[in-house]
Design goal:
alpha+beta; Phosphorylase Kinase, domain 1; Transferase(Phosphotransferase), domain 1; 3-stranded antiparallel sheet; 25 helices
Length: about 650
C-alpha cells in the first residue's frame, strides 16, 4: 500500500444513553491510518484505540527518536469547522495544563486533512483493562489513585478546564511508577454539543452525572460525580447502576438512590461508601463543595480506626435520597412556607426521672384523631368487596395504579391484566386494607401545622408490605397484623408532630443535615422519642398487643421467642430506608450492610427454609427492591366527589 493511502476498517462504538435516545445505531465505518503513514515527523506504527472523536496510534517521533501516542481527529469530523475548532480548543487546554497526573502534549499540527497531536506513550493499562484482567482492586491501592486523580482534576478546574468524560477507560495506571494518569482530557468537550446523534456525542452511561444526561449547565462537580462512579466500579467490579439495558443505568443516575446495599455486597469498605455516596449525590450542591474537601475526606480513608470505639462514635451512613426530594424541606416532610425552628415545644408531655414518659392528657390530634376508625380497621382486618374496591380505584386512581404496580412485581404470583388482575393477585383483604390506608394517608397528610406526612406514610406502607413479604419468604406462619404493624410502627412521629412540632422538626433537621441517628436527636430536642409516644397512644386507643409491641420495639431488642413480627418490621424499616421507599425523617443508616440489620439476621437465623436463608434473600428478594412501588401524589379529592363540601369523609366503601 502506498504512503499516504488509507484503508477502511470497521470500528464498533460503545453505546451511550439519553432520556430521549432511540435504540443505538449500527456501528459506522471510519477511516483508519495505515502503518507507515507519516504526519509531519511522526510515523504511524499501529492502531491503539478509536474514541468518540479521535483515533490513537502508536507512532515514532523521528525528530526526538522516541515512541509517542498520536491522537488524530477522525476523518469524518475533519471538514466540520465546529469539530475542528473544538479539537483545537482541546489542544490549547491541554497545552495549558502541567500536572504529573495529566498526560501532556508534545506537539500539535496538521498534515493535509489530518489534525493531530502527540503525547507521551504510557506503558501501562487503563483501569477498565485492569478490571477485565483481575477484577475489583484493593481499596488502599485505589485510595492512592483517587488522591492523584482529585489533584489532577482540581488543577484543571483552577485553569477553568473540565474533563467531562471521567471513566475507568480514561484512567491509565503506569507500569513503572504505579501512578494514575488522566487521559483524553478535554476531548469530551465535544460531547456537550447539541446533536441529533446523541449516542455519538456522549461517553459511557455508567458514569454520567444527572446534569449531563439532562443537558444542564455543568461544573467541576460533574467530573466529581463521574469520578465517584468510576471509583465505585474499580472497587466493586461493576458500575453503580449496573443493568443489562442502558436505560437502566440512565434511570439509575437520574432517579435511583445510591446503591448502598450493592456496595456492601461487593465489599466496598464503609468509609469509602460514605465518600462515594456524597460524590454521587443527584444534586450538585449536595456533593463536596471543592476538590480540596474531597481530598481531605480521602485522606481520612487511610487512617486506622481506633481498636475500641464508643457506640455514639460509630460510623453512620447517610440515608440515600431520591433526586426529587427537596433536602431543604427535609426531603418533603416539612410543609411549604413553614419556617425552621431550633427551639423546643414540649407541648403536653413530661418525662419522669426513670426515663419513662407519659402523656398528661391526650390533646386533640388533628393529624390522627379524625381517622381513628381507619387505624382500628387496619388492625382488625376484614374481607373486601371487589365492586366497592373497583369503584374506589376509579375515585382515587393513585390507589388503583399502586395496586397494579405492586402486583406487577410478581411477588404475589402471576398477575392478570389491569386493576382486576392486581386485585386477584393481592387478595381482597389486602386490597381493602390498602384502600383504608390510602384514605388515612392522603387525608391526614394535609392537616398538620408543620408537616406533610405523606413521605412518612409512603415509608410506612412499604414497611408493612415488606414485613409481610419477609415473613413469607423466610417461611414463618402468617401474621395477620403484619401489614398494620408495619404501617403504624412510626405513628409516634405523627403524634409528636402535633404535640411537639418544633422539637420534632429540630430533631429531623439535625439527623438529616449532620448524619446523626434520629433517636439521639429526639433525646436532645424532645421529652421522649417517637417509639414511646406511639406506644402510649396505641395503648390509649387499645390497639392489639402485637401491634403495640412492634411500635414499642421497632428500634429495640427483638424478643428471643415469637419475635418474628418485630424482626420483620425492623428489617423492612431498614430496607425501606436503603431503597428510599418514602422518607421517615431518619437521616442515617446505622448498619452499613443490609445483612447487619438485627431484624434480618433474626429472621434468617430462625427461618424454616432448608436452603441458606440469607444467601437466598440476597439472590431472590433483594435485587427487586429497587423497583418497589411508591404511592403517588393524590390526583383528586374524593371528599369533593363523594360528599360535596362536607368536612367529614367516612370511608363509605368499607362500612
Amino acid at each position: 500500500m502506498a504512503r499516504g493511502e488509507v484503508r477502511l476498517v470497521s470500528h464498533r462504538r460503545g453505546t451511550v444513553m439519553s432520556p430521549r435516545m432511540e435504540v443505538p445505531r449500527p456501528a459506522r465505518v471510519t477511516r483508519q491510518l495505515e502503518v507507515g503513514f507519516r504526519l509531519k515527523h511522526y510515523e504511524v506504527l499501529e492502531h491503539i484505540a478509536t474514541g468518540g472523536m479521535g483515533t490513537v496510534y502508536r507512532a515514532m517521533d523521528h525528530s526526538a527518536k522516541r515512541a509517542v501516542a498520536l491522537k488524530v481527529l477522525r476523518a469524518e469530523f475533519s471538514h466540520s469547522p465546529e469539530y475542528v475548532r473544538m479539537f483545537e480548543d482541546e489542544i490549547f487546554s491541554l497545552a495549558r495544563l502541567n500536572h504529573p497526573n495529566i498526560i501532556p502534549i508534545y506537539f500539535a499540527g496538521r498534515e493535509g486533512e489530518w489534525l493531530f497531536f502527540a503525547m507521551p506513550l504510557i506503558e501501562g493499562r487503563d483501569c477498565l483493562r485492569i478490571l477485565a484482567d483481575g477484577g475489583p482492586v484493593e481499596a488502599q491501592r485505589v485510595r492512592g489513585w483517587a488522591m492523584q486523580l482529585v489533584s489532577a482534576l482540581g488543577a484543571a478546574w483552577r485553569r477553568g478546564i473540565m474533563h467531562r468524560d471521567v471513566k475507568p477507560a480514561n484512567i491509565v495506571i503506569e507500569d513503572a511508577s504505579g501512578n494514575a494518569l488522566l487521559a483524553d482530557f478535554g476531548l469530551a468537550l465535544i460531547r456537550g454539543m447539541e446533536s441529533s446523534r446523541v449516542a455519538e456525542d456522549w461517553g459511557s452511561p455508567g458514569y454520567l452525572a444527572p446534569e449531563q444526561i439532562l443537558k444542564e449547565a455543568l461544573d467541576f462537580r460533574t467530573d466529581m460525580y463521574s469520578l465517584g462512579a468510576s471509583l465505585y466500579h474499580i472497587l466493586a467490579g461493576e458500575t453503580p447502576f449496573v443493568s443489562e439495558d442502558w436505560r437502566g443505568e440512565i434511570e439509575g443516575h437520574l432517579g435511583k438512590p445510591f446503591p448502598f446495599h450493592r456496595a456492601q455486597l461487593r465489599g466496598i469498605p464503609k468509609n469509602w461508601v460514605a465518600i462515594l455516596a456524597r460524590m454521587m449525590e443527584k444534586r450538585r450542591e449536595d456533593r463536596y463543595p471543592s476538590y480540596e474537601e474531597l481530598e481531605g475526606a480521602l485522606m481520612g480513608v487511610g487512617r486506622e480506626a481506633p481498636a475500641r470505639r464508643a457506640k455514639d462514635e460509630a460510623h453512620y451512613l447517610a440515608v440515600p435520597r431520591r433526586s426529587d426530594w427537596p433536602r431543604e424541606r427535609l426531603n418533603g416532610l416539612v410543609r411549604e412556607g413553614v419556617a425552621f425552628w431550633t427551639g423546643i415545644d414540649p407541648g403536653l408531655v413530661e418525662q419522669l426521672g426513670s426515663g419513662e414518659a407519659v402523656v398528661k392528657e391526650w390533646p386533640p390530634l388533628v393529624s390522627l384523631e379524625p381517622w381513628e376508625w381507619h387505624v382500628r380497621q387496619l388492625c382488625e382486618g376484614g374481607a373486601g368487596d371487589a365492586a366497592q374496591l373497583r369503584e374506589f380505584a376509579m375515585i382515587m386512581p393513585e390507589y388503583g395504579e399502586f395496586i397494579q404496580q405492586l402486583a406487577a412485581m410478581g411477588w404475589y404470583g402471576r398477575a392478570g391484566e389491569g386493576f382486576d388482575g392486581g386485585m386477584e393477585r393481592l387478595g381482597l383483604a389486602r386490597c381493602r386494607a390498602l384502600a383504608v390506608a390510602c384514605v388515612l394517608f392522603y387525608e391526614s397528610s394535609k392537616v398538620s401545622r408543620f408537616f406533610d406526612w405523606l413521605p412518612l406514610w409512603r415509608h410506612s406502607m412499604g414497611c408493612g408490605l415488606l414485613a409481610e413479604l419477609l415473613l413469607g419468604f423466610f417461611e414463618y406462619p402468617d401474621e395477620p397484623r403484619a401489614l398494620a404493624a408495619g404501617i403504624l410502627h412510626d405513628v409516634g412521629k405523627v403524634i409528636l408532630g402535633d404535640i411537639a412540632g418544633m422539637g420534632l422538626m429540630a430533631a429531623f433537621r439535625r439527623s438529616l443535615m449532620d448524619v446523626v441517628p434520629l433517636d439521639r436527636c429526639e433525646r436532645e430536642a424532645l421529652p421522649f422519642g417517637h417509639a414511646r409516644a406511639g406506644e402510649a397512644w396505641a395503648r390509649h386507643l387499645k390497639l392489639p398487643a402485637d401491634v403495640i409491641g412492634v411500635i414499642e420495639r421497632h428500634h429495640g431488642e427483638i424478643p428471643r421467642r415469637d419475635g418474628q413480627l418485630v424482626a420483620a418490621v425492623q428489617a423492612a424499616n431498614d430496607l425501606c430506608k436503603r431503597h428510599s421507599i418514602g422518607y421517615s425523617g431518619e437521616g442515617v443508616l446505622e448498619t452499613a450492610g443490609v445483612e447487619e440489620c438485627a431484624g434480618l439476621r433474626w429472621l434468617a437465623e430462625h427461618s424454616g427454609r432448608e436452603d441458606e436463608p440469607m444467601e437466598a434473600f440476597r439472590a431472590q428478594l433483594l435485587p427487586g427492591l429497587a423497583a418497589f412501588p411508591v404511592l403517588g401524589e393524590q390526583k383528586v379529592d374524593p371528599r369533593k366527589i363523594l360528599m360535596g363540601e362536607r368536612e367529614e369523609f367516612p370511608f363509605w366503601l368499607m362500612e
